[in-house]
Write a structure and sequence with these properties.
2 copies of one chain form a homodimer.
Chain A: E1 2-8, E2 21-27, E3 35-44, H1 47-51, E4 66-67, E5 72-79, E6 89-92, E7 99-103, E8 108-109, H2 119-122, H3 126-139, E9 146-149, H4 155-166, E10 170-175, H5 178-188, E11 192-195, H6 201-208, E12 213-218, H7 222-231, E13 232-240, H8 261-265, E14 269-272, H9 283-298, E15 306-310, H10 315-323, E16 330-334
Chain lengths: 337, 337
C-alpha cells in the first residue's frame, strides 16, 4: 500500500487556486505507540480550510509544504490501542491523505446511524452540529419569528434553514445566483430566497422580510451582514458562524457600517461561536444533539443535502470551487470504501 | 415670567457648532389639561443629544426650528394633576428651556436622596444607570477580570470605572489626552489609563492589558473598538453603549475590521442596549439599582464626578465642547434654583 497525499505546496497570497496544491505518493505510514492506522473514506471540504491559511484561528495556522489539513472520516485498518479495532469507523482531522497513523486521542468512534456513511458528515458531523448549536443555543428562535440565513445553500446554511422551519420561523434564505435560490424555495422549502449577486439585493431582502429580521445566522460577514444589520428588529440576535466573504483574499474588507451604532439603537446581540465550545468536555451534549437531529430525520423533517466529489485527487478543486460558491449542501470528497 | 428657550435653528450637516443654535424668549407657558408647569433646574448634556440630530434612533429625530431636546430636572411650579404639587422635584425631557408645560405622564418624581440636587444626574440619573445595567447586567464582570472602558472620563465612563473596581476587576481606562489619563489614575483610581490620541495607543493598550481584555465597555466605536477587539480574550464580552466617535459627523466611518471575524475566532459577544430597556414597565428595578448605587456612595466606594456649566445660555457651548471631549464626568447646565 502507498499513501496518496495532497500537499499545500504554498500558501496563497490572494485567491486560492488548484496550483497551490500538489499530489504525492509516499510509503504506507506505520503506527507508532498509541497510534492507530486508518484508511480515509471521506474528506470534509469546508470554507474553514481556507481560513486556516490566513493565520492561527482556533486551529494552528497552515504552512506551505504540509499535508493539507481537514476533517476526515475513515476506517481503522490496524490498532494495538485499547478501544479501537480494525473495521471501526472513526472521525478525526488527519487531513487530505488516503492513509494515516493517528494518535488515538485524536480519533472519535462514530456512533452508528442508519443510512450511508456520508450522513455522518452531512447530518451528524461538525457542520450540522454548528447549525444546531449556532441557531438553537445562540439565538433561541421563536415560532413566528423571521430568520434570515446567509450562504443558505451551503453545508451549514441548509441545515440552519431546515432547523428554522422546525422551530416555526419564517425562513428567508440568502444565496448566490438564481439556481440556488430556486432550489432553496422549491426543494428545501424556505419561505423566500434572495440572490445577493443581484443588484437589487438590499431591496429584495427588505421585501422578503416584511416584519423585519429577528434572527440572522451569518456565514459570510461583509456587505451581506451590513444589509442584514439594517433590517434587524429591536432586540434581534445575530449568530456569527463564519466569514466566507473574507476568507479567500489577501486583504480583508473593513467591518460593516452600523457596527456598533445599530447594535446600540436596535439593542442587538451579536455572538460568535465555535461549535466545539458547546460540547468540549461534555461529550454527552454532542450525542444528545445528534440524537435530536436523528429524530428529525426519522420524522421526515430534516434531510441530508450532500455534494460529493469522487477521489482524493479532486480535493483541491473541491475546495477552490466551494470558495467560489459552487456547492449545494455538504461538500465532501469520497476517497474509498 | 418669560420662558427662555434654546432653539436648534438648523441641523448640522457635519460638525455641530454653537451657531446652529439660537436663543429666544417667549411668554410663560400655560399648563393645559393633564399638564404641569415646571421650572428647569438642570439640563443634562449628553452625546446622545448630537446623535438625535442624525435621524430617528430610540427617540424621534430632531428637526431644525424646535426647542433643543434633552434630559431635564426641575421643580413643579403649578399643578392641577393628582400626584404633582408645587415644589415637587421631577425629571423629564422637556428640553432646553427655563419653563415648560409638560404632560404629567412624561414626568417622574425624583426619589429624595441626600446631597445636592445635581447628584440626581451624576449618581442616580440615566448616565449612572446606563453604567450600572450596561456593565453589571450586560457583561457580568468577575473579580480578577480585565475591564477596559472607553470615554472613561465621561459621564458614563467614570461610573463604569468605579463599578468595575467595586466588582473586583483590573480597570483600564481609555481617554483623550494626558490630563484626563492622569486624573483617571491619580484621582479616580483606575489601574491604568491609555491616551487614544497618542500615536502609540494600540501598543500602550496592549501593555496595559497583559492578561488580555475580558470585558470591554464601548462608548465610542470606531478605531478604539477596533483596537479593543484585537485584544479581547476568548469568550470576552463587549457592551455597546454608544458611538461617540461617529455622532459629530456627516459621514460615519465603516465598522471595525475584525467584525465579524474576531467575534467568531474569539467567541465574543457584543450586545447593544438602551438603559430604559432594563426598567421600562418595571420601575422597581430602577429604584433597586439607584438604592444599590446609593449604598456604594454611603460606603465611600462611589463618588459623583460633575462638570457643571452655569446658565441656560451656556447650553450650546456645553454640548459642542462635550463632543470635542472637553468634559470630565457628568456634564450639566445649572439653570436655576
Amino acid at each position: 500500500m502507498t499513501n496518496r497525499q495532497v500537499i499545500l505546496a504554498e500558501l496563497p497570497t490572494d485567491r486560492l487556486e488548484v496550483g497551490h496544491f500538489r499530489l504525492q505518493d509516499v510509503p504506507d505510514p506505520v503506527a507508532g505507540p498509541g497510534q492507530v492506522l486508518v484508511a480515509t473514506r471521506y474528506l470534509s471540504i469546508d470554507a474553514a480550510n481556507r481560513a486556516w491559511m490566513q493565520g492561527a484561528t482556533y486551529t494552528s495556522a497552515l504552512e506551505g509544504g504540509q499535508v493539507m489539513a481537514g476533517g476526515t472520516i475513515g476506517e481503522v485498518v490496524e490498532s494495538d490501542v485499547a478501544g479501537f479495532t480494525a473495521g471501526d469507523l472513526v472521525e478525526g482531522a488527519w487531513g487530505w491523505q488516503t492513509r494515516a497513523a493517528v494518535d488515538a486521542r485524536q480519533l472519535h468512534r462514530l456512533t452508528p446511524r442508519p443510512g450511508p456513511l456520508s450522513h455522518q458528515l452531512s447530518l451528524y458531523g461538525t457542520t450540522a452540529l454548528t447549525a444546531y448549536f449556532g441557531l438553537l443555543e445562540v439565538t433561541r428562535p421563536q415560532p413566528g419569528e423571521t430568520l434570515v440565513v446567509s450562504a443558505a445553500a451551503g453545508a451549514v446554511g441548509n441545515v440552519v434553514c431546515q432547523l428554522g422551519k422546525i422551530a416555526g420561523c419564517r425562513v428567508v434564505a440568502i444565496a448566490g445566483g438564481p439556481a440556488k435560490c430556486a432550489w432553496l424555495t422549491d426543494e428545501l422549502g424556505v419561505d423566500a430566497a434572495v440572490d445577493h449577486r443581484d443588484g437589487g439585493f438590499r431591496k429584495a431582502l427588505r421585501a422578503a422580510c416584511p416584519d423585519g429580521i429577528d434572527v440572522y445566522f451569518d456565514n459570510v460577514g461583509g456587505d451581506i451582514l451590513g444589509a442584514a444589520l439594517f433590517g434587524m428588529n429591536l432586540h434581534g440576535r445575530i449568530s456569527c458562524c463564519g466569514v466566507v466573504s473574507q476568507y479567500d483574499t489577501g486583504s480583508p474588507a473593513p467591518g460593516p457600517r452600523g457596527v456598533p451604532g445599530l447594535l446600540v439603537t436596535k439593542r442587538l446581540t451579536m455572538r460568535g461561536f465555535i461549535v466545539m465550545d458547546f460540547y468540549d468536555g461534555e461529550p454527552a451534549r454532542k450525542v444528545e444533539a445528534q440524537n435530536e437531529l436523528a429524530a428529525w430525520v426519522d420524522a421526515g423533517k430534516l434531510r441530508p443535502v450532500e455534494d460529493v466529489m469522487e477521489g482524493i485527487d479532486a480535493a483541491p478543486h473541491a475546495l477552490v470551487d466551494l470558495l467560489a460558491g459552487g456547492n449545494v449542501g455538504k461538500r465532501m470528497v469520497h476517497v474509498a470504501g
